[in-house]
Write a structure and sequence with these properties.
Blueprint: H1 20-70, H2 75-82, E1 85-87, E2 97-98, E3 114-122, E4 132-140, E5 146-149, E6 164-165, E7 168-169, H3 171-174
Parallel strand pairs: 1-2
Antiparallel strand pairs: 1-3, 3-4, 4-5, 5-7, 6-7
Length: 199
């Protein structure tokens, strides 16, 4: 026989939470991950943007050389025609004389991250001796410039050990610096101008 007068005892579930130590450990782990991941992510993004310079610099040099060959221009005439020309995204003013005045088919995409200025010189030594050597300076809206040389920098040279990858110097830009100084390689001088000598 059941006793209906007996009261049933309800046990309320205990609420569990995190202890202060557990929270501190989680916050510390998140902080460590952020300290490692954020700089790497920024470097990755800058490297991705810098890859544009190698592609567009190569297109510019190829287009200028093709035009000079098609017009049978001498190296001196080619140098005088292209030295000081530039390209910029459609929203910006190109540095120097617009390169599109000579090569109208050569235009940057609207989402380009850099403006480009051409410096040309007739080389007297190195792999392009007797030909026009180009140094293209790619300037972003913020950060250091990137250099593109028409001839790859020798890996054994001092310049090759200081941030040049083939034809492109992007170390300052990828490192988040704001100036480009003391860098030379290929046919680029330390100030980003084309030079007749090769390094």
């Amino acid at each position: 026989m059941m006793n209906y007068g007996t009261r049933m005892k309800c046990v309320e579930p205990r609420e569990h939470g995190f202890t202060l130590i557990e929270l501190m450990i989680v916050v510390t782990i998140i902080g460590i991950l952020a300290a490692v991941a954020i700089p790497r992510y920024i470097t990755y993004m800058l490297s991705s943007q810098a890859a544009e310079v190698g592609n567009i610099g190569g297109l510019m040099v190829g287009a200028m050389q093709s035009y000079a060959d098609a017009q049978s221009l001498s190296p001196l005439s080619t140098m005088m025609l292209f030295n000081g020309t530039g390209l910029a995204p459609s929203t910006a003013v190109p540095p120097g004389t617009p390169l599109t005045n000579v090569l109208p088919q050569l235009a940057l995409p609207g989402n380009a991250s850099f403006s480009y200025q051409v410096s040309a010189f007739v080389a007297n030594v190195g792999p392009q001796s007797g030909e026009v050597a180009y140094c293209i300076t790619a300037t972003p809206t913020t950060g250091a410039a990137i250099l593109y040389s028409s001839s790859p920098v020798s890996a054994s040279s001092t310049a090759g050990a200081n941030g040049w990858t083939g034809r492109v110097f992007n170390k300052s830009y990828v490192s988040g610096l704001t100036t480009l100084s003391g860098v030379a390689g290929g046919y680029c001088s330390a100030d980003g101008k084309a030079q007749p000598t090769y390094s």
